[in-house]
Write the structure tokens for this entry.
Amino acid sequence: MYSIIDFISLLGAVGLFLYGMKVMSEGLQKVAGDRLRTILGIMTRNRFTGVLTGILITALIQSSSASTVMVVSFVNAGLMSLSQAMAVIFGANVGTTVTTWIISAFSFEVSISDYSIVMLAIGVPMLFMKKSTYKSLGEFLIGFCFLFMGLDLISKYVPDLQQNPQMLEFLQNYTSMGYGSVLIFFFVGIVLTMVAQSSAATFAITLIMCSQGWIPFTLGCAIILGGNIGTTITPILASMSGNLAAKRTAMGHVLFNVLGSVIVLFIFAPFVALVADITQGCTGINPTDISAAQDRQLANSTLLNPEGGITAAAQSSIAFGLAMFPTVFNTLNLLVMIWFTKLYVKIVCWIIPAKHSEQNEEFTLKYIGRGLLSASELNITQAQEEIVLYGERVNRMLGMAEKLVNTKADTDEYQETFNRIAKYEDISDRMEIEIGKFLNQLAEGRLSPESKLRVSGMLRIISEIESIADSCFNIAKTLSRKNQVKVHFNEGIHKELNKMFTLVNGAMDNLMALLKEMENPQPQLVINAYNKEREINNYRNKLRDANIDNINNHEYDYQEGIFFMDLVGEAEKLGDFILNVVEGVKHQFKAPAAV
């Protein structure tokens, strides 16, 4: 009898399979994380290269969910347009069939689980090697082993319906309802894939069910078709806290899969017959004949063994047919839909329109969100883009501080500028906290050592950028105190302060150029940063030395000189903080690339 322990063991086997998929995918992502980002950034120049990119990336990381989450992340970061993303998603749906072919090919012809211990003996020692690439390859091998060990255990603990006829009788109530059975198992595939968040897991379970005679081949195809829609749940979850473009990308994925699946549902019988004919042409066995032979209890050495079970040749034919079904479906869907990419974009933009009011954009992160953490290795791009935006906002704050120095007190313009600086200071504090939280969450994920070093560097960078914002606000507060005691600067002081701000602005512009190429900073920009900071220090020293003489010569009074030096000191601190950011970029990004 099938016991509760057997059922729990079945759940454990499914869990081992899913964990193997996760470890294998993450291992490959860590091996090629940066390269994957580069490929996606370059190979999406048109819809056809985008499709090829989607196929290759998904075939490489063995997960369409991971690749579509990656695409959502890139759109969210502004590195890819919506039309480019749609082409990659189209290709990802074809690329995911590689996983089904791997599972299908090794399930019955070769028992990979028999060699799992040997592969573990190779993979586990690799985890202790110094080179991170070997560690990641070791993770891949371990995940590969766990995947097929889980698949083998699923086959072991799936109920034996010949010994449990009551289960077969129960299933027959739902397998003999004609097209109604197709719809039922179609929705089973949707729910099962949504829960597992893996169409590969759904395929593996369906393969076991069909190969043991639990359900006929036709209904197995219905489950896989439903899984094609269920797999869209992962990018939807990833886009929930993303920006408008990310949400539209996820919706485009849903639209592509739903439309294709619904069309196939209308022509389900002839479509399955087409797949069955292709399978028969390749394997010599029509998988739809197997369930018919079981129903009639026909003795057939090719399809059924003397005990009534399905032969190994028939099992291989079922595995081939189940792998062929999503391949034919996704390929035909791609060949038709690729020509309507622009129409897809228009429909998606209509379904998810842009909001007219964007007043709150200053208070929220633009490129990153908590929903984009399912592929930590690939979310570093989001953080980098957000840091550039952070730097641009603080740069505007610096411009406001300079404007405030040259604006007369007790004017509406002065008060408006002061309030804007105070507002930007609040935004700066909140951005540092939110970006820091995001980076800490990334650091808790499964990252390569190089990526962990980058995250550490970015944490230092955002801290120093926030210090620049604090220094700008300190300038505003110093001016406010000056005005409260009715101190007025003469034209000479204003001239010197403007020269100082010119030097600081030059250093800030150089920093922004460096932040925009954070992954591959130009050495000349780093050299320029040191030179500009030295110029700021030298000019500060010159003004400080001249200040006492100017007071003694009665060019301005002592109190003016105090406020003058306070502002010069804050400007010099700005130069220090800017150089600290450059140091973070130099040591945390340039150094690992040279190793």
Notes: The first helix runs from residue 4 to 42. Confidence is low (pLDDT under 50) at residues 165-169, 356-363, 590-595.
